[in-house]
Amino acid sequence: MKFIIRAGKLANDIFNPVADYVYNTFGSNSGNLAYQYSVQKTLSTADSTFTPTYYKHDINKNKHLRDINSSYDALILPMANSLGRKDFISQLDELTTLIKSTKIPCIVTGIGLQSDTSGSFQVPGIDNAKQFIAAVLDKSNSIGVRGDITKKFLIKLGFPADRIDVIGCPSLYLHGSNFVLNKQIEVNSNSKVVYSFTPHMPKQLRMAMSKFLSLFNHIRYIAQRRDELAIMLFCGHNTLPKDDNLLITTPSSPLIVNNNARFFTHYPSWINYLKYFHFSVGTRLHGSITALLAGIPALLIVHDSRTKELGDYHGIPYIEAGHIHSEKDILDKLNNISFTKFNTSYKENFNNFISFLHKNSLRTIYDKEVGENRIFDSTFIEYTSQVIKPTIHENTETKIDILSSFNKIQSEYINKLKNK
């Protein structure tokens, strides 16, 4: 089958990190790479091909969408926390218009509600969400949602329960049906700790997290935001609070100066890098999921509906942000971490995901008559070393290469926009 998929690039494309930044191939947040990679792998049967939408979904402005009905067999839409977000309403509307214009199946492989931990349905863009879901269900047998909170939200909007399938986040199904977590956690001052963090977290949580990280000699922060990548590559800037040392906010941030930040625009490299750490802690959902896929323990700090519903559905060990009063709360949870729920629910969750795809007439590499496509996984074996670190710690030649490539790629990008 010929698929067109919501993505900035194909899963195994490896670009110059500067090009990834300029063209924003990861949709402003590298966590998007996680579920896109897994969905592409799952659907990569011998006769399947993929073309990315490049995150350009306005059918009136983008030539690659105008022949969508004659060129492709299905539109695949891996999504994230796309409902209830004020900053995503215009993108949701573009997708709604695109879906309505198609005559091919349009399959949403996991979408979630953005709300507080109580799962409040008083969120922005309710009418926009209704139009989007209606358009999707007009072109598919069911819609895949991340968890029970999102399903209840869609039912409240008037959509039938039997056409809403809870599938979790597809990123966790990357390793197939028999994935098990059994690594014992090591918590001491010499533990290698990787963490992720979200802007605008409560002061109490930021203070507790800072004290917790100070207990360890070896830490790495995995940045996910595009503006953080700009600072790492060429001393750009962002609008985050300058006093938040858990994030990259300026070129003089401690994470930059001490060379403790890393960024990834190639998903296998991210997974491979985390294999050498003892555990992960953080508020970023795909920061925790990627750690789990690397086989290391991860503690997710739940702070909204999307992190809570996925933590509950998959059995990801978590602690709610409101329950963290000091670093001791994080330590206590880590020392008592358990993957029993994760392991016991994994196979059923995986099978639910595959059943959802079958329900929408999609074949997978896990179907008996198809078999796994080992070619897809070649980049795990051949190329897993694209690790982006702060440019200020590179040698002079590399610094010059990065800056010159930025000027060249940026000029090319601007010319493409002019000639569009």
Q: Can you describe this structure?
A:
With 420 residues, this protein is of the alpha/beta class. Helices cover 39% and strands 11% of the residues. It is built from 16 helices and 12 strands. It has helices spanning 17-22, 32-42, 68-71, 89-101, 126-138, 148-156, 203-213, 226-234, 254-257, 267-274, 285-293, 305-314, 327-335, 340-359, 378-382, 396-418, and strands at 2-5, 49-52, 74-77, 106-111, 143-145, 164-166, 192-196, 218-222, 261-262, 279-282, 298-302, 318-320. It has a 6-stranded parallel β-sheet, with helices on both faces. A 6-stranded parallel β-sheet has the order 9-8-7-10-11-12, sandwiched between helices. Helix 12 (305-314) links the parallel strand 11 and strand 12 (318-320). Helix 4 runs parallel beside helix 5 and helix 7 packs across helix 13 (327-335). It starts with a strand and ends with a helix. 43% of the residues are buried. The mean pLDDT is 93.
